[in-house]
Structures are given as structure tokens and as C-alpha cells.
Amino acid sequence: MNLDLVTVVVDEYDPAIEFFVGALGFELAEDSPAVTNDGRPKRWVVVRPPGAATGVLLARADGEHQAAAVGAQVAGRVGFFLRVEDFAAAHARMVEAGVRFVTEPRTEPYGRVAVFLDIAGNRWDLLG
Questions:
Q1: Could you list the residue range(s) of the whole structural domain that residue 86 is in?
Q2: Which of 1, 60, 74, 87 could crosslink 79 through cysteines, CB 3.0-4.6 Å?
Q3: What's the pTM?
């Protein structure tokens, strides 16, 4: 058993792809045409960190209810955790790419950590 995908609801596909691939260094695993349950066109977009088994499904908000969830998927808590081998290098690369960190890096018993926001406004821990 494994966790295959988690969903991040976003406003638009292409800026989200650019953020996850360009700023975070993920790989674009899939970008395929699809349809909604009622037959409207959408895309099936999956990104994942290099070598990771679990991917992130980037789902464009469809309707007011989903649009209200953009950036608030976990009610303002840190809901996603990105572990890297070289914290300092990853943090520097992400800052250079324009990723918005909402905390300064700090050392905890489990390692280095800093909280950043994804393109939708969800909170992530960068862990090293």
C-alpha cells in the first residue's frame, strides 16, 4: 500500500506547474486532457519531487465552493511537508526563485525547518 497522490486546488494550471516545477524543482509527471464529471474539459496534472512515489495532483478550482478552498485546504495549518537532503541549498534556491517563506529557518529536534507558501497560499514545511 502507498499514498499515490494528494490534491492541491489551484486557480490555474500553468502558473501552478511553473511554481512546482520551476520554483520547487518538482518534475511534471503528467499533463493530460480530461473531463469533469459533467463532461467539461479539464486537465489531469501531476507533479512530484524527483524520485518520489507520491505526487501532487494540481486541480483547477471548479465553482465557488472549490475556489473558496484555494489556499485554505488545511485551514491555515501546515499541511504539506517537503524533506530535502541539503536544506541550505534548497532554501537558497527557493528564495532565489521567489518562494515566499513565512518563517525564518530554525533548528528543531527533527532537523532544520522553515514554513513557505505554495502558489495557492497553502503552508508547507521545508525540512532538512
A1: 5-127
A2: 74
A3: 0.94
